Amino acid sequence: HLFVQCPRLEALFELLKGWFQGLGEVFSFGLFIYGPKFSVKKKAMHYLFNFVSGSAKLAIWLTRRNQALNTGSVHPASMLVGLLKARLKVEHAYYGMMDNILTFSRIWAVAGTLCSLGEDGELIINL
Q: 12 — phi, psi (to 5°)?
């Protein structure tokens, strides 16, 4: 029940399905809970699967805690989008300061699923 049968998580799983599909993978609860079987060929996507899944689990925990404390956001999908947007902005700023936006693109803009870069290297968030 903790992850797969809770009705409050349905919107979160719909988001994940779309993002995983954008990365060329079929979403499953096994993939979400245990992660992908790692392969060097797909390592960039596997890193993103793991990061997004971990962020989703954090969003679930934070919103459950907020619900119990009657404070803050209690919507896991919104929390996940907020967490990912914040991380993308920080990472983009860091790699921009390091004058290494190409590395940012290889790590975070895989298949344009979470984000992409504009002509001048500006961040375009696709969440």
A: -65, -45
Label residues 17-42 b or e (16+ Cβ within 10 Å = b): eebbebbebebeeebbeeebeeeeeb
Judge whether 76 and 12 are in contact, CB under 8 Å. yes
Instruction: Residue 12: count other Cβ atoms within 10 Å of its Cβ.
Output: 24
pLDDT tens for each residue of 44-54: 888 998 999 99
Whole-model pTM: value is 0.90
Calculated CA dihedral for residues 69, 11, 83, 60, nearest 10 degrees: 40
Taking only the tens place, the pLDDT of each residue in 17-47 is 999 999 888 999 988 888 888 888 888 888 9
Q: Strands (DSSP E) along the chain, which ranges?
A: 115-117, 123-125
Cα–Cα distance, 37 to 47 (Å, whole number): 11
Matching residue, tokens 């096994």 = 30
Q: Cβ(32)–Cβ(9) under 8 Å?
A: no
Q: Give dist(CA 87, CA 51) in Å, integer.
A: 11
